[in-house]
Design brief:
Blueprint lengths: L19 H8 L47 H8 L4 H39 L8 H4 L41 H5 L2 H29 L1 H36 L3 H15 L10 E6 L4 E7 L9 E6 L5 E5 L2 H26 L7 E8 L8 E9 H6 L17 H7 L1 H8 L3 E2 L27 H14 L3 E9 L2 E8 L7 E8 L7 H13 L4 E6 L5 H6 L8 E4 L1 H12 L8
Parallel strand pairs: 2-5, 10-11, 11-12
Antiparallel strand pairs: 1-2, 3-4, 5-6, 6-7, 8-9, 9-10
Length: 577
């Protein structure tokens, strides 16, 4: 409805674009223009319909005319009178529905932008990382020449010679003719004159440069340039020397050097997703040569919770929530890519193979001062990392779809590779379902409970291998310990074939486990058995090994393990806390 300057209606109605109300009525569940559910008196395009009961022409066509008195009923007024005064109210309802539809569309576009950003993050988080090893960090010094008037460095250019500018003599038309006649050729004389001018100009410029070099201002400029170049060369040399010192410390497995290299590599891996902060800290434990990485996971609200908005029957804008499983899957996809990227960065930088394994924990740190939640934990040794192609090759948009959200979660390539590494992943991040971290980033000399399963297995193998037990083969391994076989050469501290059962825990080891180990020794056709624990043995177990038939079973308790670590590794195993 249009209004005049005095605030009174002029009887004209501005109609929306054709098809606008038709789309609104479709959203409301009614049929299009002319359908049986269309309100009486409307044509579906914002005006009143013509025909019986319409009360005259459409509202969009009706309006004030100079030929019609202002107090005469216009087309819209006639329609309102014929319709019992319902035209104005219907127009207001249509306008309200239009505003609601526009708001619904605007909010849906905002939700779509959130989905597009998430898809872009998934793509960029899977980009390969560059290796940040020592060779790639070396700097190279390239001297910059001293500019002298934009030409070659002063003092290095030679005096221009006429021979370099003289044109070639013209060929002789008559071999028997005089050489003087060839020099009278007009074209040759013009080239000769131009060459003389060019040579004289070059000679003047050269003499000017030489004079500038010998001037006090030129000498000062050259000295300043040389000082800058010497400072540049010195800075590059000092940086490379410090880098070489770090490399020496890294090869000696000094924790500070290893952690510095790892954190530089982890920071470089984040360059493709700088708008998604996911810092990762590293702690190196030389006792087990394992790096424990703590990765801060993105906030849960990063993944959109809505699919969009829809227009309700009463004209209200209603949100359309996503299925919780879909949202959880998208979050785990992103988390899996961030974890794989961190593992790849740590593996790529360790060119000297200092690391025996990597433990990565993904922590959700929410505001409010609450305890962080571990939603993901990976315990991978070097061999497992070498066998795994860490980053997915396909873009997220190319991944399989259409088989249900649970099928997508199981088939997501990044999650599949994490599970191949034995990762523990939360089943529902939005329910705050935490997992047990494989290891915690504690002190450099941890206690047995702080070790991951791979760390404990690596520690036992390292101790017994240095004791003389070679040809190590792990048969069973779990969080509590492992069972393995090994063989030591004659004359070593551990000669013959052995069955090793190592465990960690506070509970004592009883005689029943000693009998079980003795049976395993017979089944493996071994000569001796070794029962190793970070705890202690009961008196019955100690008495049993002194009897006939069990004297080939040897026992090592927690104090013995700590002493072996001190002897062979130079680092004792800390007591449990």
């Amino acid at each position: 409805m249009q209004y005049s300057a005095d605030g009174h209606s002029d009887g004209a109605v501005t109609a929306p674009q054709p098809g606008f109300l038709a789309s609104v009525f479709r959203d409301l569940g009614v049929e299009g223009p002319g359908g049986p559910d269309l309100p009486d008196g409307f044509d579906g395009f914002g005006g009143l319909a013509e025909g019986p009961g319409a009360g005259g022409p459409t509202t969009a066509q009706a309006g004030p005319s100079s030929d019609v008195p202002s107090d005469a009923p216009s087309g819209a007024g006639a329609a309102a009178d014929a319709g019992g005064g319902t035209g104005v109210g219907t127009d207001e309802a249509v306008a309200a529905h239009g505003r609601a539809a526009a708001l619904t569309h605007h909010r849906t576009l905002a939700v779509q932008a959130e989905h597009e950003r998430l898809a872009d993050l998934l793509r960029r988080a899977a980009l390969p990382v560059s290796a940040m090893d020592f060779e790639s960090q070396l700097r190279h010094y390239e001297p910059r020449p001293f500019p002298a008037g934009g030409t070659e460095p002063a003092g290095t250019d030679a005096e221009p010679r006429w021979e370099d500018y003289a044109p070639a003599e013209p060929p002789a038309a008559d071999p028997d003719g005089s050489p003087a006649r060839r020099l009278l050729d007009s074209g040759y004389q013009r080239e000769l004159a131009q060459a003389r001018l060019t040579h004289q100009r070059a000679l003047r410029e050269w003499r000017t440069r030489q004079a500038e070099v010998g001037s006090p201002a030129g000498d000062e400029s050259r000295r300043a340039h040389e000082q800058v170049e010497q400072a540049r060369a010195r800075a590059v040399r000092e940086y490379n020397d410090s880098l070489e010192e770090c490399r020496r410390a890294y090869r000696l497995a000094e924790p500070a050097a290893v952690e510095s290299l790892l954190e530089r590599a982890l920071a470089a891996a984040e360059t493709s997703t700088q708008d998604l902060p996911a810092p990762c800290r590293a702690v190196f434990r030389p006792l087990t040569r394992t790096a424990v990485l703590d990765l801060d996971l993105p906030a849960l609200d990063l993944v959109p919770s809505l699919s969009g908005y829809r227009l309700g029957v009463d004209g209200e804008t209603l949100p359309v929530p996503r299925p919780p499983a879909d949202r959880a899957t998208d979050y785990l996809r992103l988390v899996a890519r961030l974890a794989l990227r961190a593992l790849q960065a740590a593996d790529a930088v360790d060119t000297d193979e200092i690391l025996a394994g990597v433990v990565l924990n993904g922590w959700l740190r929410e505001g409010g001062g609450g305890e962080p939640l571990c939603l993901l934990s990976v315990d991978a040794d070097r061999d497992a990392l070498a066998r795994t192609r860490l980053l997915p090759s396909a873009a997220p948009s190319a991944e399989p779809d259409g088989e249900g959200v649970y099928a997508d979660a199981e088939q997501d390539e990044a999650l599949v590779r994490l599970r191949q590494l034995g990762a523990a992943v939360t089943p529902d991040p939005y329910a705050r379902a935490a997992v047990e971290p494989a290891a915690v980033a504690g002190p450099a000399v941890p206690s047995a409970p702080d070790l991951s399963a791979n760390e404990f297995a690596q520690l036992v193998r390292e101790l017994l291998t240095r004791g003389g037990l070679t040809q190590w083969s792990v048969r069973l391994r779990g969080p509590a310990g492992l069972v393995a076989t090994g063989e030591g050469p004659a004359g070593s501290a551990l000669p013959g074939r052995w069955v090793v059962w190592a465990s960690r825990g506070a509970g004592p080891v009883g005689d029943e486990e000693i009998r079980t180990l003795a049976e395993a020794v017979r089944e493996e056709s071994a000569e001796r058995g070794l029962r190793l624990t970070t705890g202690r043995f009961t008196d019955e177990a100690l008495d049993l090994t002194g009897e006939d038939g069990h004297q080939h079973i040897h026992l090592v308790d927690g104090d013995g393990v700590s002493e072996l670590a001190r002897t062979h590794l130079g680092l004792p195993l800390a007591t449990a806390h």
